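Today's session is about reading a structure prediction critically. Students often jump straight to the picture, but the first step is always the sequence itself: look for stretches that repeat, for charged clusters, for runs of hydrophobic residues. Only then move on to the predicted structure, which in these notes is written as discrete structure tokens rather than atom positions. Here is the chain we will use throughout the hour.
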Amino acid sequence: MSSAPDLPWQRLHPLSPVIQMVRGAAAFVLVLALPYLSSPHNRTSGDYFELAVIGVAALGGVISWLVTRWRIQDGTLRVETGLVRRRHTQIPLQRIQSVDVVRPALARLLGLAEVRVRTGVAHRGDARLAYIPEERADRLRADLLLWSRGAVAAPADSGAVPLAAVRARRLLLSVWLDGGVPLIVLLAIAFAVAATVHASGARAPLLGAGAGWMLLGLVGIGSRLNSQLGYEVLEEPDGLTVRGGLIGTVVETIPRNRIQAVRLIAPLLWRPLGWVRLEVDVAGGQRRQREDRGAAGQMRTLLPVATRREAEALLAAIGPKVAPVLSPAPRRAAGKAPLRYHFLGAGTTDAWGAASAGRIRRVITWVPLAKVQSVRWTQGPLQRRLRLASVHLDIPGRRVGVILRDRSAVEAHRLAGELPDRCRQARHRSLIEGPPRPEQSTGQGPPMAAGTGA
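Below is the predicted structure for this chain, in token form.
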């Protein structure tokens, strides 16, 4: 029997259609503006048609708001939407894995927020309430998480415990050094210099191309700053809570049992400063319907930029209690990968598998064996000649996995035979023990293998 009270049918805020239209109108407005920009003095025929298109879009948003409603009944969140094609979503509260609160810029200006209820399955099993008043959204998030645990009232020690935060100055410099921004700026300068030495007829296209590259770089910087400034990670009873954002903000819950991989990344230009980025792979993180790409990425950033010590402190709360020791690849692997074999490392324990790779962008990935779906042994023609092989630890999703790359053939055969049993035992232990808690950790993050770490 659910502890949640029954709530009557409720509608979204009346301004929801306005926010939905504005968020998706940028490309549409640009298309409508192009004819005016090309011939501003000769535009009369299509004006009424374009106004009609805008009116139809506005009417569609209003109708969508009118036919959308939600309620809680018999321990189930029910959401109904759609005029021609009706859609009824029913989510048992016990199946809720996380509840996120998203505040885009315009919604935040109007005091509204979007609530995303996730179940960890395909996107059509989730619910999206866009938009409701901010205070109500925060209260609904807390209540849904509480009811999903079957609790009636929050425990006395339910306060959030800060685990990590991002410094603004460090983030500004890291965004500049990462993501190809310096390359974009150099290309813009190159176009500007080329425009000064060419004939006047070629200057305008070259200057325009340079300005386009510069604009692309500024958009990339602005997007990352908007999503990562004010970033902090907190520990709550329901898991890790990630908060961040400058203009538009996001409050996201990541249950520990949904973390199926942890990844530490050290880009080339960050390494002299000793900075790294920490990411997690979240089960069921595929893009949701009508969800922005930044929030829908399967890899979720826990720390956009941090020192090695700060990253290890957070890893102590979410990573392995006993980290695998990364052993280097055999020297004969240089015949297959002469530039990167120095950075190849791999190791396993009874609970985790880990691998490192990357000469320019160094990456260490940890995967709990309880999440591994399959173990594959592969050997290419060159590997066969060098007596090498690779072992793949596959997890749900397509973006992350651990590859014990270019190991000796004897070691790879041994691991391919042992790891399936280890994975079964790890799954059995996880069902008995449940997800790890921060107080169970040793207080020290997984060690970085010398020569292979970030």
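Discussion point for the tutorial: The CA atoms of residues 65 and 308 lie 48 Å apart.
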